[in-house]
Amino acid sequence: MSIGSTPPADLVSQAPAGQSLRFFTPHEARTVEAVMGRIMPDDELGPGAVEAGTVSYADHTLAGVEQGNQTRYRAGVKLLDAACRARFGHAFADCGHVEQDAMVGDMAAGSVPPVTGAAEDLDWAVAFFELLREHTLEGMFSDPVHGGNRDLAGWKLLGYLGPQPGYSHEEQQLDAVVVRDRIFTAADYPLEQAGERP
Amino acid sequence: MTESGERADVCIVGLGPAGATAAYALTAAGMRVVALDAGPRRNKDEYRLDELSDSVFERASLGPKFNAELQTWRRSRTSPTQPATYSLGKMNNGVGGTVVYSAWLRRYAPGDFRVRTDTIARYGEEALPTGSAVVDWPIGYDDLEPYYTQVEQITGVAGIPGNIRGEPVAGGNPFEGYRSEGYPLPPLRSAGLSELFGNAARGAGYHPYPVPAGINSVPFDGRPACTYCGFNAFFGCHIDAKSTVDLTFVPRAERTGNLEIRTNSRVIRVTTGDDGHATGVDYQDVNGNIRHLEASIVILAAYTFENVRLLLLSTSDRFPGGLANAHGQVGKYFTPKQLPRVLGILPGRALNRFTGPSAQGTIMDDFLGDNFDHTGLGFVRGASMGVIQQSQPIAAAKDTTPPDVARWGRGFKEHLVRNWNSTFAIEAQPENLMYEDNFLDLDPVVRDRSGLGLPVIRITFQQYANELAIIDFVRQRSVELMRAMGVEKTWPGPTLTGVGSSHDLGGLRMGTDEARSVVDQDLRAHEVPNLYVMGGAVFPSCPGINPTLTIQAVALRAAERLAQEWARGRGL
Predict the structure, then answer these.
(1) By the 8 A CB rule, do B404 and B490 touch?
(2) How confident is the model at residue B102 (pLDDT cuts 50, 70, 90)?
(3) ipTM of predicted complex
(4) B50/A142 touch (CB, cutoff 8 Å), yes or no
């Protein structure tokens, strides 16, 4: 199976190595990637968030259309690290998976105790978890033009064929197997030839 | 800056379903129409098959104006204000208006126009909930039937009729009103899931039927048939197989030579003269300049929120509380629709819901309106319900998870991978009664990000017991049907799905009582004789049926009557 299109080079971030980060500091990128890797882990079912490049997606998005969320990330990483240091003695990215899972679980449940006593420290955890989860899923499953879904890993994980030009009646029946020679992306459109249509 | 000598017979604000359908009738009658739309005119190649950027439930990139003026929301007059939430997604801007619609073009039923009369007759006045504001429409199904037919024929609706001139038709909706013509196109093809639902519903004694859709099931009007690509509702159609008014009514109006369209032209107020008549509109043009357009007649045909906002922003010495608002009616009797669902998994089955448009579904009206006996149920009115196609990966991943599945981690990933193509929902469209305390006004604090800094609309809305009971009732019916379909595990989606729903109705009620409504049955403002309002804002009720077809039929009727009056040369 070949890939329908390659995203523009400037959208392919090298994070978390650091060189082409647009918004995150290297430490933030490392931390965010670690959280996202726990939300969608790599396992026997297939690649996870790290492999799909969701941190690149988040970096690209925060530097672009979601600049309004920059401060939530900046503050969120600091608070997350503070909570981890208080509980485990080191920053989130330096925790093992068991510790990281415990912390992500507490964030999702809103049960992270306040660590700094600052006003922004009261309700940060749930909101930050939800934002990270949202960006993880968008980074896994959006068109690769947005900086994530590297090598179409997210779509392949689901068996999704991307925006195909169409489907037959037979393919819409229960348990029908849909086979295509390649995954499409938005960059395949507009279709040049009517012959591309089913 | 006012351009001297520039004057239109009619200025239409917003060239969506209401404005375009009106423009069609007015230009055909020889009236010179200038239509101002805040957005661009797009062609099919501009619609990307990109769930993140283009869908209205994600970034909604087709609605930059709407996104810059998002509504605020509070549950009651004493509740804190927060950002509004949107169930189906946000609205978009541009010629054609809601080119992202699902194109479910269903008629309202005859009883939907006389809810108050029928409810009292069958269940007594005490059945109407406390605080509700239930009224009959000032027009009925008989008034609209010819216009429904005309809109269906021009649009090219695909479906199976249920009642042609009083004769039932097998496979159609037996609860629909009579129609003078069948649908011009055969229905969209069925999908495996819709057939499974249909069989379960028929087995339970219900009456499922295919969604009537403004989508080409076969080539029509110079446009191709749908390819079932799965990017339909929430997107613009990249091959013009979805019948939106920029492809249907607008070209017909243009061919008369009487329609001028000004795109990227955002109206900011209706201007009035000393005699209390509207004189035209002020608008910001594509270059950011504020200009004035003089018009003999002004028609507001924007979305519900913007129609209300424009009247409230059009203050003057004569209209200090906003235009047409002497009785404080502007913004009242508003409701969004809620879109509750029950989700379920057919273990191991491939549903292939990533194919096809949402309209390629099967629905039933057995529990809609007053199609069933409510005696002893503790609520009035009901909901339509059914299954749809069109599932995409981001939406599927963000959807409500079953209660026994974590929202992250290995279990979550396994749930997604194993079940995303086996998961579906029975989706309901419940009626939402109007209430005295659900309304729109201008937010006293929050301003839009348009550059003009105008107040945004503030939604005051909460669900009341009657509507919660409808939702509970249809969820029970949904679970029963899903069991019959072979589903073992079901779970509910949210009860409050959003305070913006794309079916946001009321706020500028149509009625005969000047103290309790804003426009009359011909959509003319009671207080401003040459000002008209078209769109869902004028609806006195919110039936459990998609509103666009009725928006068009009501607008077409009003425009025809306006053109007749213009021809007679009186009253204006």
Answers:
(1) no
(2) very high
(3) 0.94
(4) yes
